[in-house]
Write a structure and sequence with these properties.
The protein has 142 residues and is mainly α. It is built from five helices and no strands. The radius of gyration is 18 Å and the shape is elongated.
Length: 142
């Protein structure tokens, strides 16, 4: 991985990890509040859940797309398959980082939520862009 990409990934991971540390007390308070809290979710909490659901669906789609690209690369021959296998670990790592970022964003305080929301969206969009480039290279779905 290039040093610039590593720095970006490390920064995103740290940015996603840090707010989770301050969130433990608020999570305990939510657990102590009981089952009636769910019914009283604010609009911001509903927006947060909607976003999280959308991003989870997109991450799941990207995971399936990564698997399908591997199959298409294999069908293109040994050279394409070898090239894909070389790129796969970095793509899988980005996919896992998006999953972890989404998990941290769901746990984030309201103050940290907006920044994390942007970070998760950017990570997912970047991975989508990389998969789109590979998709063009390996041809259309059959």
């Amino acid at each position: 991985m290039r040093m610039r990409e590593f720095g970006l990934v490390a920064g995103v991971v740290f940015a996603l990890w840090l707010p989770g540390c301050e969130n433990q007390d608020s999570m305990k308070n939510e657990e102590a509040a009981g089952p009636g809290v769910e019914a009283g979710k604010s609009d911001a909490a509903k927006e947060k859940q909607t976003f999280a659901d959308q991003m989870q669906a997109q991450v799941d789609k990207l995971s399936a797309e990564l698997k399908e690209l591997g199959e298409r690369a294999k069908a293109k021959g040994e050279e394409m398959q070898a090239e894909f296998e070389k790129a796969r670990p970095a793509l899988e790592q980005k996919l896992e980082e998006a999953r972890k970022g989404l998990e941290n964003a769901q746990k984030a305080s309201a103050a940290a939520w907006e920044n994390l929301k942007t970070d998760v969206k950017n990570a997912v969009d970047k991975l989508q862009s990389e998969l789109d480039k590979l998709s063009e290279k390996y041809g259309k779905k059959e």
